[in-house]
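Work Package 3 (structural annotation) set out to generate three-dimensional models for the target panel prioritized at the project kickoff. During this period the team completed the workflow that converts sequence records into discrete structure tokens, so that structures can be stored uniformly alongside our sequence database. As a representative example, we reproduce one entry of 291 residues exactly as it appears in the project archive.
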Amino acid sequence: MTKVNVGLVQMSCVADKAANLSKAVEKVNEAADKGAQIVCLQELFTSLYFCDVEDYDHFQLAEPIPGPSTDAMQKVAKERGVVIIASLFEKRAQGLYHNTTAVIDADGTYLGKYRKMHIPDDPAFYEKFYFTPGDLGYKVFKTKFATLGVLICWDQWYPEAARITALMGAEILFYPTAIGWATSQDEATNKEQYNAWQTIQRSHAVANGVHVVSVNRVGFEQDGAMKFWGGSFVSNPFGNLLYLASHEDEVVHVQEIDLAKSDAYRTHWPFLRDRRIDSYQPITKRFIDED
């Protein structure tokens, strides 16, 4: 199989965790009705983006993985024959939490998890308060329809993460995301930030010769101080946008992608062939200081 239908679920969230989970199941079913074979949900889709403040009460939102939310997703995956990429707040042990994505195969099998490696700490994105950096390394998941690589939000700014995941055999890179504009910002700053976000991910598609699927949330949160900018998209292996979602609206979109395109682009633009792996040792340094 070279062609696969990928579903993107871009939605808004509310304070009620059960309502968000129910909505996500509804949206997965909608994507399946439209022919999706793989469905990707946005980052932390069962809640509001709670990392805008450092609040110990928010740890109550976390759950084990596998756990109740993956149980619900396994059920719908099996019923509809779809792969589901589900980003959740993981409680690993008492006092130990991760930002984690579970992958469910089309027969309902839980395939495993990826824990977010890069954890930001910025105004209104205080993730280091909540999340321990991932310790599972980069991951690929061999599903019924494709071999998937999953990275999460802040990971999307790091070419090393995309490269390693692609080298592990990922045919598609998925980025569940929660990112937005501060409503106090001017329009020029907003546009510059969004364009950088999209450009870096399209660059990963080009550099690695794979499709990239980025799924963001939408809507106003943080009492209106943050507008999540949506703009979910699908890029082909040469950075061309196959689909671009609204900044305003909830969206369930299904995009057909042709996995055979990777071979064509990698053959004509052989970046992997020409990599000088013997010269890359300095990349493991924090900074290359002068002697």
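The chain has one domain: 3-284.
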